Amino acid sequence: MTDWKTRCARRKQSQLDSIPREWLIEAPPANQMNVMQIPRDSALLSIRELEITETVDVEVILQKLASTEWSSVEVTTAFYKRAIIAQQLTNCLTEIFVEKALQRAKELDDILQATSKVSGPLHGLPISLKDQFTMKGLETIMGYVGWIGRYADSDCVLVEILYECGAVPFVRTNVPQTLMWGETYNHVFGRTVNPYNRYLTAGGSSGGEGALLAIKGSPLGVGTDIGGSLRIPSAFCGLYTLRPSYERLPYCGAVNALEGQESISSVLGPMANSMSGVKVFTKAIIDAKPWLKDPLAIRKDWSDKEYGLVYHGGGERLCFGIMWDNGVVRPHPPLHRAMLITKRALEAAGHIVLDWEPHRHLEIYKNSETIFVADGGEDYRVSCELSGEPLIQSMLPDEGAHETALEEPYVKRLVGPPYHRNTYELWNLHKEKRELRKSHLDHWEATISRTGTGRPIDAIISPAVAYAAVPHGLNTDSFYTTLCNAMDYATSVFPVTFVDATLDHRHPPHEFYNHEDEAIYNLYNSGLFDGCPVGLQLIGRTQEEEAVIAMTEIVDRALRRFEKFHA
């Protein structure tokens, strides 16, 4: 039997061989950290291809495709070339299938030419997919050596619907081994880095999507989220995303870790450089009636009424609650400044902003993380034993790792030593989670007494992570994101600003909540993070995707207007 390292080397070489030679570029110096400008400077992309790939409004791309101003072949080619540049700079891709994607694009161009009708709401649009979404005839490795050579004999439901909507799936993107990391590294494809600063992580587990989209190698990507895997990379890479509620979008047929764990469902969602991409994707998938293909998908049509914020005063005078600090880890200065900017922008736009009081946050986090490890790690061991590869215990690089004072993440102390919990113990965790959801709902409803709108707080704004992108191996915080997975709150992420070393000075020490809070405080050095994107999350209620999209658009417009007048 071939040893696992040899299998990895062969598969990585196979990936390299799938790249057209003429799309290879000269590698930048290893000490060049920011590579965001290289696609423009590389001379690989024509002026027209730069125009196409730097059009971030997905609705504009779709309009130009529908009018035949741009063909699907040229749009797919442009983004493919930029994706291959992104791969060479950040190591963000897994599956590369140029011929298959271009053949699909040509078929769509031919249909439009012959019928003068688009093939669906996503006609001709190239879409990148996280390495969980199976496509017939392609491997789905999902970060495990033992999954090399595992070819799909059918498309997952999402891919079926994307084809029906006229989309062009064109690349798949990197993930961490086990998926259950906030960074992206596995033995097969290696580590994905952040194009804003390659010394820093792009996040995870949808980190391949984050890096690819940040460098504009895709107009729209699809990731997944069980504890923050859409929102962490989006925050680290300056993107927009939506973490929908359980089963609102179809997951059937996609591969996953912890399959059979159904208390906290993994969900899929869009990632993009504009909110238009988030809305276009979500509406297209829901309009395709996914419940007819996925038995778990909720039978709920897209609601223009909810998008119009009928349950939120029509959106005229919204009330937001800002979670400045969750009582577990205090955010770094750039996150605090981002929340201040957002508060002022919303107040300038006529909305109300109150302080959100965290409620049983640590209890919720402990319950969730205990559910995730209820099998004692059996799921990971079984997958690793297929090849004999070791289970990755740390995301720290073998060489050149950034110094850290955190020897053990706080979550390990909360949950305790791993062991295989029995059925009754698991049922009690589920029971506790239901009680926590009810308690958090009552806490939210009680805010009606202080909003002045006759409604409870419409949405919560908080950090997605306590910091901007950190050095590889140091992303230990999912305290802010996991709340939404446990409570099943529809949640978005939106970019606000960038770390500015001249503004984001270190705050005085506070009374630390725990040893990880202290380590995160000590990690802050504005020079290390300078220039990195800073994003926040907007938290709505369960099954409230349309309203969360609309409220995020309102926040985004307020921020852009505020920025214009306070530059």
From TrEMBL:
InterPro entries linked to this entry:
Amidase_CS (IPR020556), Amidase_dom (IPR023631), AS_sf (IPR036928)
Stated EC number for the protein is 3.5.1.4
Q: Does the keyword Hydrolase apply?
A: yes
Tell me what reaction this enzyme catalyses.
a monocarboxylic acid amide + H2O = a monocarboxylate + NH4(+)
Q: Which SUPFAM superfamilies match?
A: Amidase signature (AS) enzymes (SSF75304)
Pfam families referenced in this protein's UniProt entry, alphabetically:
Amidase
Domain of life from the UniProt record: Eukaryota
| Chain ranges of the Amidase domain | 74-548
Keyword entries, A-Z: Hydrolase
Q: What class of enzyme is it?
A: hydrolase
Query: What family does this belong to?
Result: Belongs to the amidase family.
Q: What is this protein called?
A: amidase
